[in-house]
Amino acid sequence: MIGIVIATHSNMAQGLVSAAEMILGSLPGVKAISIGQNDGPEDIRQHFTAALDELDLAGDGVLILTDMFGGTPSNIGLSFMSNARVEVLSGVSLPMLLKACNARNELSLEALAVEVKEYALKSILLASQLLKEQGSSR
Q1: What molecular function terms (GO) are annotated for this protein (predicted)?
Q2: pLDDT of residue 43
Q3: Second label for 29, Cα 20 to 30 Å away, from 6, 53, 55, 123?
């Protein structure tokens, strides 16, 4: 099973996991790394190392979902791409996490990362535009 790490600024990661568990139930193989304002880079790196070691026991790899590209969670996640089976995908949202959890047993790590990215792009909708396209009136 592909492991999933959600790494974000503040408590967003834990909130996403809690919301996903409300919908899907318990999520084995999923870890939240919530980075606080006073967390140093080495502390954060240790959280990543522990999570990756724990989640990649079967060797299927780990998908790291981060809140924004270029932020600390993403930058530290990227540093693990050279020495482990890791993919990093930024812009994490609840639909992305749900898709990743539901598809991770059916795809390779690389295919899962692509699938979740494409799903995320499709999950962004402007309600008024969608309703207009469907011919509905508000």
Answers
A1: kinase activity
A2: 93
A3: 123
**Low-confidence residues in the chain, pLDDT < 70:** 83-84, 137-138
The angle formed by the CA atoms of residues 77, 119 and 108, to the nearest 5 degrees, is: 60
Set out the domains of the chain in order of their start, with CATH numbers.
Answer: 3-136 (3.40.50.510)
DSSP assignment string, 52-118: HHHHTTTSS-EEEEESSTTSHHHHHHHTTTTTSSEEEEES--HHHHHHHHHHTTTS-HHHHHHHHHH
Continuous segment of H or E residues that includes residue 14: helix 12-24
C-alpha span between 8 and 69 (Å, rounded): 11
> Residue 15 has what pLDDT?
98
